[in-house]
Design a protein that fits this description.
The complex is a heterodimer of chains A (about 180) and B (about 250).
Chain A: H1 2-25, E1 28-29, H2 30-41, H3 50-62, E2 66-71, E3 79-84, H4 86-97, H5 108-119, H6 124-148, H7 152-179
Antiparallel strand pairs in A: 1-3, 2-3
Helix pairs in contact in A: 1-3, 1-4, 2-3, 5-6, 6-7
Chain B: E1 13-26, E2 29-42, E3 46-50, H1 57-64, E4 72-77, E5 80-81, H2 87-97, E6 98-101, H3 113-123, H4 128-141, H5 157-169, E7 175-179, H6 187-202, E8 206-210, H7 214-217, E9 222-227, E10 230-236
Parallel strand pairs in B: 3-8, 3-9, 6-7, 7-8
Antiparallel strand pairs in B: 1-2, 1-4, 4-5, 9-10
Helix pairs in contact in B: 3-4, 3-5, 5-6
The chains are: A mainly alpha (about 180), B alpha/beta (about 250).
């Protein structure tokens, strides 16, 4: 349960700025935003569920970054349309202008490798081999996704992930050279 | 020799190496490059060998293609023991049954693209007509028909590697060997070569290649990891991909 809570919180946090950025173009309701995200990033993007989107929008409204109003529809239930406030627009601009986090320094696998050497708890070659197999499987998944990614944004997203994975593998080999 | 396949008669087995070693001696120093490698490759299989530089992967590939003689061990190709063959016999075997692709393409610079491919067919004993037909067919498949009369130097790296692939495939080799085939290509050209390798593999081509490119390796049926001249892992890749959680880099941060 705790883990699920964690995922939920992370899911709603990482979605805040993309949702604001989409609203900077035009007002929209939650389902439209979900569709836009999917269309933009394609299959490579972990599809946000509609619940996460509505929770995020409520929090953005509470923080004064968006405002909403109900639009009455004749044949369907009312829909709530969200639009950016001035503070929201400012937040989008400063988010986009700010530099982003570089390559990660904290790496769980490296922690395991370093600590297993200290504690003598596990077979390091096995650890490295399992991690390499895992990277290979991820690479295979990305290659499968790449086959269907014709549009520029999903294609670049996948290519970037592949290059990151390649760097992870190269580094794994460096670890192997130094530790083994 | 004991055990299954010691005579190399297993019908599905195309290549078998056992106890393969290579030691270089220079300035009185003995450097073991490959140390007791056992490797099997079935007909139609695609195996990738990865490892850090100086792990012995190129030496291993060169021995399997007869470009370097093992210090000890055996190599069986399609039921025939080949590690003791003379250089001349190896040359004939390579011309007819083994396709080679190198990192730096190795095309003949003063011949056209078409002649580069046809020469390989003629040297293996094809008639001029057969060579021309096969060349046209392959260059067409690889999207290079329009470049047939060009000199290799006029082509991009990715195109040159596709010509090298056409040359390697012209005699319908039993085995395609490739040494870092994407090592000298940019990301997009590497992907194009990878797609071609996957396609010829899907058509039944047996492939053994050495690569440090994880994208290339992940397309194989098996990935063999070499370290310090020895195999440290031999990982089968699933035929049908089951979904693997996507890496963090695909999660947007905000």
């Amino acid at each position: 349960m705790c883990e699920y809570e964690g995922q939920w919180r992370e899911g709603t946090t990482f979605m805040r700025m993309p949702l604001l950025a989409l609203l900077a173009k035009e007002p929209a309701h939650g389902y439209e935003l979900k569709t836009q995200l999917e269309q933009l990033f394609g299959e490579a993007y972990p599809t946000p569920n509609i619940g996460q989107i509505y929770v995020t929008l409520q929090r953005l409204e509470r923080d004064g970054l968006v405002r909403s109003q109900d639009v009455i529809q004749a044949t369907r239930p009312n829909k709530r349309v969200y639009e950016l406030t001035d503070a929201g627009r400012e937040a989008v601009v400063s988010w986009i202008d700010a530099t982003s986090e570089g390559p990660r320094i904290r790496d769980e696998f490296f922690m395991k490798l370093a600590l297993s050497e200290l504690s003598g708890t596990s077979d390091r070659l096995g650890l490295i081999n399992r991690q390499r197999r895992h990277y290979l499987m991820q690479m295979r998944s990305l290659a499968d996704l790449a086959v269907g990614a014709d549009r520029k944004i999903p294609r670049l997203l996948i290519e970037g992930a592949m290059l990151h994975l390649q760097a992870d593998l190269d580094w794994l080999q460096r670890c192997q050279e130094e530790f083994m | 020799m004991t055990g299954a396949g010691s005579s190399g008669n297993d019908g599905r087995l195309l290549l078998r190496a056992s106890g393969l070693s290579k030691t270089y001696t220079g300035d009185g120093v003995i450097v073991p490059a490959v140390r007791g490698v056992d490797l099997r490759l079935e007909h139609g299989e695609f195996v990738a060998i990865t490892g850090p530089s100086a792990s012995g992967k190129s030496t291993l590939l060169h021995m399997l293609g007869g470009l370097e003689r093992p210090t000890s061990g055996e190599i069986w190709l399609n039921g025939e023991r080949v590690d003791k063959l003379s250089q001349a016999r190896w040359a004939i075997l390579r011309r007819r049954h083994i396709g080679f692709v190198f990192q730096f393409f190795n095309l003949v610079s003063n011949m056209t693209v078409a002649d580069n491919v046809e020469l390989a067919a003629l040297m293996a004993g094809a008639s001029r007509k057969q060579a021309t037909t096969r060349r046209a067919e392959l260059l067409g498949e690889l999207g290079l028909a329009a470049k047939a009369d060009a000199a290799p130097a006029r082509l991009s790296g990715g195109e040159q590697q596709r010509v090298a692939l056409a040359r390697a495939m012209v005699n319908r080799p039993l085995l395609l060997l490739a040494d870092e085939p994407t090592g000298n290509l940019d990301s997009a050209a590497a992907m194009a070569v990878l797609r071609l390798l996957s396609r010829v593999h899907a058509d039944g081509q047996s492939i053994l290649l050495v690569t440090h490119d994880l994208r290339v390796a992940s397309a194989a049926d098996r990935v063999v990891s070499l370290f310090d001249g020895m195999i440290v892992d031999d990982a089968p890749m699933p035929v049908k991909q089951r979904p693997t959680p996507l890496p963090d880099v695909l999660k947007l941060r905000g």
